[in-house]
Amino acid sequence: MNEPAVAVNEHANRRSGGRLGRKAIRGAPVASFPTLVRQIPAYQMVPDEAVELIHQESLLILEEVGCEFRDDEAIALWKAAGADVSETRVRIDRALLMELVSKVPPEFTLNARNPERTVRVGGKNSIFVPMYGAPYVRDLDNNRRYGSLADLSNFHKLAYMAPALHSSSSVICEPMEIAVPKRHLHIIHSALKHSDKPFMGIVTSKERAEDTMAMAGIVFGEEFVRDNPVLVSITNCNSPLVWDATMLDAMKVYARSNQPLILAPFALCGASTSASAVGAVAQVNAEALAGVAFTQLLRPGSPQIYGQFMVTVDMKTGAPMGGTPEAAQMMYLMGALARKYRLPWRTSGFHVGSKLNDAQAGYEANMLMHAAILAGANYIWHSAGWLEAGLTCGYSKFATDCEQLIGWYKYAGGLPFDDFKEAMAAIREVGPQGHFLGTQHTLEHFESAFFMPTIMDFNSYEQWKAEGAKDHDTRGREKARNMLADYEEPKLDEGIAEGLKDLIARREEKLPDSVS
Amino acid sequence: MSDDEIILSELSDDELVQQMHDDLYDGLKEEIEEGTQILLERGWVPYKVLTEALVEGMRIVGEDFRDGILFVPEVLLSANAMKAGMFILRPLLAATGAPKQGKMVIGTVKGDIHDIGKNLVGMMMEGAGFDVIDLGINNAVEKYLDAIEQHQPDIIGMSALLTTTMPYMKVVIDTMKEKGIRDDYVVLVGGAPLNEEFGKAVGADAYCRDAAVAVETAKDFMKRKHNVRT
């Protein structure tokens, strides 16, 4: 009889090593989540006819008004492609535009230096990426001050440790103490050293983009980075309707190496677009499509990300807002357009206007991320740290966002039915009265069944009070502090580490100490 | 795995007690029963088995529950294993006149049929070695008085989830006062809408905010009681 043997075996395996065993399991860092493969439908907020109407208006904008491309080489490329060019104004007819747009692959693989962190972008595949570009930090002592390289390294460490973040971004905060001409070297070095997730490129000049590619070449191999995506870079159209020389230079460097760009107008709706949510989308769509099309003149078939950054302006002051209903509605429209064009698309998730990690931040973040998720975005950026319309990266906000992302990852991952039968059996086991806390089904599933946040507090009032009656902002800072104390640097080949240092030293010798 | 090779009867006393702490932690009922029997066969007095193997093991469980390392379903499993060990020891402890951990009568008060919290407390108390008499739900004062008379507990526990039923705790305590028996027992109260002030106002000895606190509070009162006696 086999049965007793099996039983004995199961018996033995039930031992999990008591306290030490459990502590080891519970204390172990959570492994990074793979690409989020969406299992819920994308929500379309308007009928197909409305999407088509906006699309037609965008085409008319590019045919009748046109878009500026302020770079000689770009103009030459457009002329050669058959666009109507007058000085730097390019009018693109719909056939040419849509032919170029159709060359972009609907999905691509973004390689990480650790292959386990490699992700997929486009279609049902989505990734969460931390913020970018903050001059200020709100630090671990709750002071607002300029960011430093130490802060940037900390944020890269946190990004590495956060299971639901799929990228380390690059300039999460600005290392303000480093001279601008040399800064990019240290930003990229920090991202590569402190994390093994995909990262983002520098776009502030052609030279800096080339340095970024050289550093990527050291890590991934020069040959490899000529054709395989290893980093994503942001290029913003200056709304209304201007692609400037700096952005076009960055596009040339990256697109020619098959490195994806995000073609995203930075639109302050009401100021750099008309004061209409649908009007703003028609314009931003035209701007983004013009950018996407241009990349296909540089390298046909190169992977790109269509996108937008659209917030409304506060008409009382002219300042950008964050989590407003219109910002959410515009995401749904952009998502519908992206699906129409079969393009991977970017939006942002937690880009709030609040100064603090407070109730306003929470409401704004939820308004935006809910829309980003339901609108089916693929590259969900500014998903950690963002405060004050991007001026500040907060440690508490960063830790909070990372925890919330675990919840959103689960939400978008859909409802599992695989243990449905066991759950029904548990009802029969318990019957009326009684409770489910001790059933076999509960014991097997309690750890994964429900979201288990640690910064959010659900203790009894007395327990919360006994622990110091801390508000969410304080708990977020404590979490960030604890995470940093537990950080262990991912392995980086010694030769690669040396190679990066050498390159930085060589470049720093040549680069000036000021921007003059 | 090396765990496959653990044969409890081949372990030294120290190793066995350590292993029982682990097995309690892992909620392994049969292993705890076996370990308890082995220690008794080796001539351990029941009280020593109880305190060194079981109660100490559950102390560790309680600590990690408090610190968020163990979760409710796991602690219930541990408590269940502890209860199995206690089932073997209880008659032997009584026969040898060993000091008692304590006895508790617990129930949800009249008008209230909510009992998940009360059940949790009951199981955790059993897990800590207490005898628990569970009166269930919707208990009128007579039920408590009958149970007190019949079981002679050390502790009376009352629970309520509703703001409309929680004042009934005062009815029970006032009746105990009228009968002149209030001070013979420790009265612990709990439930979501209660707080410390309410516990004091109705004349309870303590309000317990959750099951872990209830066990700690009960142990504390038992210690004081024993100090008075000795």
TrEMBL record, chain A:
Its EC number is 2.1.1.-. Pfam families: MTTB. It comes from the Bacteria. InterPro entries: MttB-like_sf, MTTB_MeTrfase. GO terms for molecular function: methyltransferase activity. GO terms for biological process: methanogenesis; methylation. The keyword Zinc does not apply. Belongs to the trimethylamine methyltransferase family. Keywords: Methyltransferase, Transferase. This is Methyltransferase. The keyword Magnesium does not apply. Residues 1-20 are annotated as: Disordered. Gene3D superfamilies: Trimethylamine methyltransferase-like.
TrEMBL record, chain B:
The keyword Zinc-finger does not apply. One of its GO terms (cellular component) is cytosol. Keywords: Cobalt, Metal-binding. Pfam families: B12-binding, B12-binding_2. Transmembrane segments: none annotated. Residues 101-230 form the B12-binding domain. Gene3D superfamilies: Cobalamin-binding domain (3.40.50.280), Methionine synthase domain (1.10.1240.10). InterPro entries: Cbl-bd_cap (IPR003759), Cobalamin-bd (IPR006158), Cobalamin-bd_sf (IPR036724), Met_Synthase/Corrinoid (IPR050554), Meth_synthase_dom (IPR036594). GO terms for biological process: homocysteine metabolic process; tetrahydrofolate metabolic process. Coiled coil: none annotated. GO terms for molecular function: cobalamin binding; metal ion binding; methionine synthase activity. Residues 7-101 form the B12-binding N-terminal domain. PANTHER family: METHIONINE SYNTHASE (PTHR45833). Belongs to the methylamine corrinoid protein family. This is Methylmalonyl-CoA mutase cobalamin-binding domain/chain.
